[in-house]
Design a protein that fits this description.
heterodimer, A: Rossmann fold, 4-stranded antiparallel beta sheet, 10 helices, 26% strand, globular, B: mainly alpha, ABC transporter involved in vitamin B12 uptake, BtuC, 13 helices, ATP hydrolysis activity (chain A), AAA+_ATPase (chain A), cell membrane (chain A)
Chain lengths: 264, 340
């Protein structure tokens, strides 16, 4: 399954959200989208999911432009999880995960053992089985986030687009989600494209890093190559240094926090 | 435990509806012994009794049942897809459109050619359902196209609906206020929602819409479930959001407009019944739709029966009864929900 965009530009009214983005996603790889707030990460993800009509350029899946795909067919291949999605309150975790099967069951057919299996797997993979019957309203932010990831997984799509899947999660659950992403990619061959704020986490899980700034692509390549480029410092307007913590590991970005000394 | 209790509630609601319908046929202003009503139902009744039961009470009750189902379902659908708990057919401008169409129609057919304002003319009442339905449908379509130009989000639809509804309502009031006294009566009666003098024609007018709705709904439950999510999520799950949103809107408007044409804008049924159904169904969300249908039919029939029995020959219009009875129900539900 090949996903690519060419010379993609997106506008919201007068505001240019994305300018001339060309990216070709290789099946099975983990792509991390990083960039400051408002740099176009969410817009890029929504465009790749076929949810935003581009102002110019095009997005293609398997050689077909996005607007020629039926949503149901698209949903079997590609699943998108927006930032902080909202669900009807009274749904349980399992109800939510079951919605992910919509594209498979259609309008008439009942849920088959295959669907039940996919839902059970999604709940299991996200560690949500133990509270599958609880209402979304009763969950903590982290639990709810994982329930949503379960719904996206239940879709069993070959491409997973996640907009900041680790926000709201404590460090333990962040690591769980990142490990889940790695497992999906390595064991199931799922392509994962995620927007993420933590640069170090991006560099650890990403086979490929895309750095956006002001709606333009500033960097597209491996984490090791990003380290020496000085682009992180300029894009985020921070000072810091990449340090090697061990052999064979990706460099770690160490932020130089200018702290006003106290008591002076 | 709760599951058992909820099943139990559904099992009780069905027979209760039947009892209400029977009561509405057996009881009325003309005091008729139950044995005689039974005779009519079995086909042995006298001429007079057959006329009262067969041509007056039964079509009236059935019209109420169908209209109740229409308003309640339309309210449920609109509340669900606009994610607005206060939605009812008036947010699509349907009630107001029907009102304006009926007032203009009466104005043109009666007032334009008769200049004495104190004479009550034979009114072309047989056209009112169609006129009201077309008016309501046109208003709904207008709101739809206005909202469509702005992206058809639930918020857009709601805002356009309220704006269009307000304009139509004001226009209808303008037409009415320029009217002679004696002619106000029929339009006021229609406006307050009434089942008075509803015939088999009204039943036949409503039945196609009801059947269409009841046949279409089972195929729409899954899309409707997904329409409760925000657009991006629903589309990502594989829903053709705009098409399904439009289909549900169309169905809701058709149900509401036909009912508004037949019995007038019965406010509050579309608003209250879905809440009541949700409350009774509890966590069993699959029961909400059947409960809405039963409750919509039952409450309108009951309201009309109360209006007939309390008001006597003058009768209290069903719209007044549902509004007076519906408000406390809504407030009570609100209290329970807030506490829960």
């Amino acid at each position: 399954m090949s996903l690519l965009c060419q010379n993609l530009s997106v506008r919201y009214g007068q505001r240019q959200a994305l300018t001339d983005l060309s990216v070709s996603i290789i099946p099975g790889e983990i792509v991390c989208l990083i960039g400051p707030n408002g740099s176009g990460k969410s817009t890029a993800l929504r465009s790749l999911a076929g949810l935003t009509r581009p102002h110019a350029g095009r997005v293609q899946l398997d050689g077909r432009p996005m607007d020629q795909w039926r949503r149901r067919e698209l949903a079997k291949r590609l699943s998108f999880l927006p930032q902080a999605p909202i669900a009807p309150d009274e749904l349980s975790v399992e109800d939510l995960a079951r919605q992910g099967r919509y594209s498979h069951v259609g309008l008439f057919r009942n849920h088959s053992p295959e669907d039940a299996h996919a839902v059970a797997w999604a709940l299991d993979a996200t560690g949500t089985s133990s509270f599958a019957q609880r209402g979304l309203r009763e969950l903590s932010g982290g639990e709810r986030q994982r329930a949503w990831i379960a719904a996206a997984l239940a879709q069993e799509a070959g491409i997973l687009l996640l907009d900041e899947p680790t926000s709201f999660l404590d460090i333990g659950h962040q690591v769980e989600v990142l490990e889940l992403i790695c497992t999906l990619s390595r064991e199931r061959g799922v392509t994962v494209i995620l927007a993420i704020h933590d640069i170090n986490q991006a560099m650890m899980v990403g086979d490929r890093i895309l750095l956006l700034e002001g709606g333009r692509l500033r960097f597209d390549g491996r984490a090791q190559d990003l380290a020496g480029s000085g682009l992180i410092e300029s894009a985020f307007n921070v000072r810091g240094a990449f340090v090697k913590l061990g052999d064979g590991t990706v460099p770690h970005f160490d932020i130089d926090l200018r702290r006003t000394p106290t008591g002076q | 435990m709760t599951l058992i209790r909820n099943e139990w509630r559904l099992l009780v609601l069905g027979p209760t509806l039947l009892l209400i319908v029977l009561a509405a046929i057996f009881l009325g202003v003309v005091n008729m012994p139950p044995a005689e009503v039974l005779n009519v139902l079995l086909g042995y009744g006298s001429m007079d009794a057959s006329l009262i039961i067969g041509d007056i009470r039964m079509p009236r009750v059935l019209t109420g049942v169908l209209a109740g189902i229409h308003f309640a379902l339309a309210g449920l659908l609109l509340q669900t897809i606009t994610r607005n708990p206060l939605a009812d057919p008036s947010i699509m401008g349907v009630s107001q459109g029907a009102t304006l169409a009926v007032t203009i129609f009466l104005f043109l057919t009666v007032y334009m050619f008769n200049n004495d304002p104190n004479i009550l003319y034979r009114l072309p009442v047989q056209w009112l359902p169609l006129v009201g339905c077309v008016g309501g449908g046109a208003a709904g379509a207008g709101v739809y196209f206005l909202a469509f130009r702005h992206g058809l989000s639930p918020l857009r639809v709601t805002l356009c609906g309220i704006a269009v509804g307000a304009v139509l309502h004001a226009a209808a009031m303008g037409v009415i206020s320029g009217w002679g006294t004696a002619r106000l009566e029929i339009v006021m009666q229609w406006l307050s929602g009434s089942l008075y003098a509803r015939s088999w024609d009204h039943v036949l007018f409503l039945v196609p819409f009801t059947l269409l709705g009841l046949v279409a709904l089972p195929f729409m439950t899954r899309p409707i479930g997904l329409l409760r999510f925000e657009e991006d999520v629903a589309r990502s799950f594989g829903l053709a959001y705009r098409r399904q949103f439009s289909l549900v809107l169309l169905l809701a408007c058709g149900l509401a407009a036909s009912a508004a044409g037949a019995v007038g804008p019965l406010i509050f049924v579309g608003l209250v019944v879905p809440h009541l159904a949700r409350f009774i169904a509890g966590p069993r969300t699959s029961l909400i739709m059947p409960m809405t249908i039963i409750l919509g039919a039952g409450l309108v029939t009951l309201g009309d029966l109360i209006g007939r029995l309390v008001g006597g020959p003058e009768e209290i219009p069903i719209g007044v009864v549902t509004a007076i009875g519906g408000a406390p129900v809504l407030l009570a539900l609100l209290r329970r929900t807030v506490r829960g």
